[in-house]
Amino acid sequence: MKLIARFLKYVTFDTQSDENSHATPSSSGQRVFAEYLKSELELLGLEDITLDEHAYLYATLPANSDKEIPVIGFIAHLDTSPDMTGKNVSPCLVSNYDGKDIILCREEGIVLSPSEFPELLNHIGEDLIVTNGKSLLGADDKAGIAEIISAMEYLKAHPNIEHGKIHIAFTPDEEIGEGARKLDVEKFGCQWAYTIDGGEVGELEYENFNAASAKLTFRGRNIHPGQAKGKMINALLIANRFIGLLPSEERPECTEGYEGFYHLAGIKGDVEESILTYIIRDHHRDKFNARKEEMERLTSIINSEFGAGTANLELRDQYYNMRERIEPVMHVVTVAFAAMEAVGVSPNVKPIRGGTDGAQLSFKGLPCPNIFTGGFNFHGRYEFIPVQSMKKAMDVIVKIVEIVNHERNTIYKKTLGFGS
Ligand SMILES: [Zn+2]
């Protein structure tokens, strides 16, 4: 199967991104891989293929219909996580998985076991692509790239499937949060798009956290401890007082699903000055704003207890929940949902407890939910992906294209508000 051959080829490129680099792409391997993909897309006969100076690769599958069909896009990322090496990736295929332990590396005793990863048991009888225990696999997100390109190839080979213009883009540095930044949304020219960058088969995501950071600086007054009575103000203890004012159960380790939190991410200081850094997360915009207001309120409590100017709060918004940009165009989710059901996949919609490139893109004007690749245990040596799940992801992409054509009139009339 071409899809799998593609994937196995792609993982041999070392495209680990580098969070310490200020260049885009952050590592040269990403450009090498992008150039390889460019030549592949040329061979496939896609059009308007451009690889820009930052290693963003764009291409178009032209429409094969005169009808007015919404223009959509598919996006995946070139890089792999900085968390684990992506060099010398040497995958193994476990055919017809029997539900037992999979030995990844005999000499180092590295085992992929259903006792630790019970999700394996949902894939008995399937063919799993695993690592040799010494690197990550890179299904995140080379599976997404292979699935998108294979779907475009399929559509080219099946001209009976009527479709509009389809744009694809492969972006660098998603893993270091830079992937969406330099994507030229205007040039990409889609009404909406999907990132193919999720995990387990069925995953469909269009909600993520609203995110802010907070830096609190507390000013103290240091006096020799022997003469400190009535004079010393200990900035460390003020910080401690502030920590105690926050609700103790609204922390990452106590929350899940749609529950937001304050996360104390850093603490440093001495008697003279102490600094707390927090991240604030919540899916609901109102609650997110309320959390920021609470930070302000607690800061003023400290200032009234210890004197004006003792505590200083700097709040900075980081990103927002894409849901508010997706809801007005809910057909982008409905189409993906229907496509999954049509190919026998149960959609599993869940809120992301983090950010995503699709969120940035949605706020740049390109509504962009995220769809599964089929992979598991991203960013480490236990990463694996069932061949059958990759095939399903490719089927979903093809089916989305079909549904967008079939439903073009409803999409235009009901949601986008202009005539059929
Ligand atoms: Zn990814």
TrEMBL record:
InterPro entries: ArgE/DapE_CS, Bact_exopeptidase_dim_dom, Peptidase_M20, Peptidase_M20_dimer, Peptidase_M20B. It is an enzyme of class 3 (hydrolase). GO terms for biological process: peptide metabolic process; proteolysis. Its cofactor is Zn(2+). Keywords: Aminopeptidase, Hydrolase, Metal-binding, Metalloprotease, Protease, Zinc. Its EC number is 3.4.11.4. SUPFAM superfamilies: Bacterial exopeptidase dimerisation domain, Zn-dependent exopeptidases. The keyword Protease applies. One of its GO terms (cellular component) is cytosol. Residues 206-307 form the Peptidase M20 dimerisation domain. Gene3D superfamilies: 3.30.70.360, Zn peptidases. NCBIfam families: peptidase-T, PRK05469.1, PRK13381.1. PANTHER family: PEPTIDASE T (PTHR42994). Belongs to the peptidase M20B family. This is Peptidase T. It comes from termite gut metagenome.
